[in-house]
Amino acid sequence: MDLAVFYALGTALIVAGIIIIIAVSARGAGTGEGKAGKAKVRGGGVIMIGPIPIIFGTDKKSVKTVLALALALVIAVIIAMLLYYWLLR
């Protein structure tokens, strides 16, 4: 494959992500969700430093979800590395 194909695919994915973020933000702003005192915010995140994830979150369910996603990401990276090594032999 040509390098331009990967460049175009990456650019398209970034633009699609921005459009999704804007659409979700606009949809949530007009519905009246999150009235004062009734909103319950939950969330979590992960910072990957090499193969080591640093996980944080606001509640146990969010942390468990992010932990599962981080574990899946680490496994996918290990499989990709092994596949890459195997193809180069």
Give a structural overview.
This protein has two domains: 38 residues; 49 residues. Helix content is 64%, strand content 13%. It has 89 residues and is of the alpha+beta class. Strands 1-2 form a two-stranded antiparallel ribbon. The longest helix is centred in the last third of the chain and has 29 residues. The chain is built from two helices and two strands.
Annotation keywords:
alpha+beta, 2 helices
Can you give me a brief rundown of this structure?
By secondary structure, the chain is of the alpha+beta class.
Mind sketching the topology for me?
Blueprint: H1 3-30, E1 44-49, E2 52-57, H2 60-88
Antiparallel strand pairs: 1-2
SSE string, helices as H and strands as E: HEEH
Shape: flat
Total tally of structural domains: 2
Query: Care to count the β-strands?
Result: 2
Q: If strands are numbered along the chain, what order do they take across the biggest sheet?
A: 1-2
Classify the beta-strand content into a percent band.
5-15%
